[in-house]
Amino acid sequence: MRAVYITFLLCCGASLAHAHWFSTTYTLKGGWNSIYLHGDATHMNLDDLSAQYPEIEEIWRWNPNPDEVLYIDSPLLPSAGTAEWSTWTSDGSVLTLTELFGQSAYLVKCSGSSSDSYSVTLQQRALAPAVTWERSGANLHGFPSSNASGSYPYMADYFATFTAAIASNVQIFKYVGGEISASNPIQVFSTTFESLDRNQAYWFDSDVVGNFYAPLEVSVSGLEGLDFGRTGSTLTVTLNNRTTAVSTVTIAAVASEAAPAGETFVTGSVPLILRTYDAASLSWTESAITEAFTQEIGPESTVEVSFGIDRGAMSSDPGAFYASLLRVTDNTEQFDILLPVTAEVASLAGLWLGTATVSDVASQVDSSPGSTTPRSFNLRYILHVADDGTARLLSQVFIGTLADEGNPEGLCTLESGLDASAKDRATRLSVAHLPLDLVTSEGSGTVALGSILERTVSIAFNDPSNPFVHQYHPDHDNKDARADGTSTNLAAGDESYEITRQIQFEFTNDPPEGTSSSGWGSSVIGGTYTEILDGLHKDSLEVSGTFTFSRISELGALTIN
Q1: Which of 39, 82, 158, 511 has the greatest CB tally within 10 Å of its CB?
Q2: What H or E segment, with its residue span, contains residue 217?
Q3: What are the C-alpha distances in Å from 180 to residues 1, 175, 177, 187, 206?
Q4: Residue 127's CB: how many other CB atoms inside 10 A?
Q5: Per-residue pLDDT at 366
Q6: Are both 189 and 264 inside the same structural domain?
């Protein structure tokens, strides 16, 4: 391989607390081998790995883009102390590598000769695929090829859309065990008949630039794959077919392995939803992903696949971690790509703005034909859930810079709680059908999927929001007007009445019909609404319908002025 100029890549990091796991078994021989990690294994220290597999004597990690310019004769010959290599040895004589980072190529030296064979299983955290080709020509890479049929695809077929990597003037090498010599690594002369092993790393003397790793390019929202986090509801995966033929891609949800010791416990698989846009109705249809499905992609075309999450199926305590994998394969069995999928159960603390849609009113008329209203009507509600779970029904709330010491951003119930100099940037939300300045936690229940929250609101006979009161009408102002122009205040029941509203929110695990399930249980909650009113009629009145709340803030603290 020609002399190259290489710059140093500083590789550092630690195992992430949240992970989605799979295992790969590598078949190694005595002497020098090359492997490629499609996932990250930094949770295991190399000394611990050596204790489990004592046949491993040395591990060398290739750093493809070092920071310092350095001339070397051949990258095929590992050289300790140079920027392009990070090294671990079992005797501790060289230690610039302590963990196995993902999407990286390694040389592994085992005891014995090429006739000796070992199996080494590494549990790894899934990573989105990523391969960057260097114009220097020193490329040690691995690829997510498939052996679903029992054999790997040939290099010529796999690289048909990236032919510069296997051009006639390109030298390709692979390690086959034994000492470094003329027979290890050996040159690949025929890409037409050379299978591309996904667990092996290959040297490509190709001075090209690109990010090719498979005939299909997969673009996800971030480096962590489909990470819904605590409150995410929808994510999109872009699939780009590089080939000149129609590609039929199969997408399947795969369970994560149990997390290794010391890592975050995986509660279960992420309950994914497939979202499909219906151009005829201009709306999205959603269905739970319970089995593999296919997606056809035209030649040299791109499609987007939208995924949601059914948080109602994540019935665990706040902070519980869910993880799984999304496997992407094709009908020609060339690639097998694993995408990480993660989500976390969020606390429902915060500020919620919602609407109750009343569609049924229990009739007080004998032989009434039913309770369904000719047309539903909406009631706005504001609900705050504190960090300790206390739920308060509010008639108004202010969001902005508080007058408290330090002027933090927060929530308060009165305008006086805001910093006077920052009121122009504050927001006020209010509800017209509740008494002004209402802050009540009177009632029972909690805000949680499957729970019922009951709150009682009392409206005084002389409250401005009482429907019997009208300050400009002499029969509804609660005053006894006299001929001399004076008046006396009347008691409750003379012109208006005390009204009690018993409001019930029954939170359902599944959204009401016609409501999107994406984000349900985290950013959106709701269910069945019921209210009993006393004081409007000689008998109690009952109305019902559905309701939804959308979280507009995760602040669990509320300043009650």
Answers
A1: 158
A2: strand 216-219
A3: 15, 9, 8, 13, 22
A4: 21
A5: 75
A6: no
